[in-house]
Amino acid sequence: MDVTEFLGLQPADAPNRCSMVVTEDLMTGGQFLFGGCGLAAAVAAMEQVCGRPVVWATAQYLSFAMLGERVDLDVTVVVEGRQTSQARATAHVGEREVLTVNAALGERALDPVGQWQVMPEVPGPEACPGRPPRFGQERSIMTRLDVRLAVGLGWEELEGNPRPDGRSALWVRMPDVEMSAGALAVLGDYVPFGISQSLGGWWPSNSLDNTLRVVRLEPAEWVLVDVRVDGLWNGFGHGSVYLWTPDGVLLAAASQSALVRNRQRD
Known about the structure:
- The chain has one domain: Acyl-CoA thioesterase, double hotdog domain (Porin, Beta Barrel).
- Strands 1, 2, 3, 4, 5, 6, 7, 8, 9, 10, 11, 12 and 13 form a 13-stranded antiparallel beta sheet that branches.
- It has helices at about 5, 35-50, 155-160, 180-185, 190-200, and strands at about 10, 15-20, 55-60, 70-80, 85-95, 95-105, 145-150, 165-175, 205, 210-215, 225-235, 235-245, 250-260.
- It is globular and about 50 Å long.
- It is α+β, with helices and mostly antiparallel strands.
């Protein structure tokens, strides 16, 4: 299936508009739309309208779309050039805007190519333990993904064992979903995971933004989600995510900031 089917994204009753319903399969444990799914929906919608692949897309998360709510996405093509388009997607529940995404789309035939980032050495997915959802078997986006812990600790061992280098990694498989920028957008929303790993305990956090930069699309059953937390200060954490095929092809890079909550009070 493609990512639009995975998300349940459907054409709506207005030009350049589509919609989706926040189901249990798309939500977080807090029963609101998973940020990566919101960015993925906007990416897919803009690619459909512009007829071009996304090069980069950046999302600003403004509000929560809760379980059962319908989200409408309106795409505006701001600039239509010969080789690139600049577009914006706004997602709203009724009159409440929940997400704004700006993006550039296009592709060019150019001889020089290169990759300078290097994938970390980690065990393959078959050798890594599974990472179950934190709250048991509740239905959420995490129950639709096959997640293996490549670098880091499981829930039972995490408390009191921080990662001093801010590095963690997961193998993630989206069963039967074709490789696309939208699929990578779902997988790029893992800086909050990395913050908890870096702190050595579960600290709930909410994404403020997410930027996806697509390098190269290659088929891959498993994607290595390589999380690098940069820093945490005044209640806000910042980090990056690199997305790799098992043979070391860099698919995309993402970056994100998150509001880290006090786990005793929030």
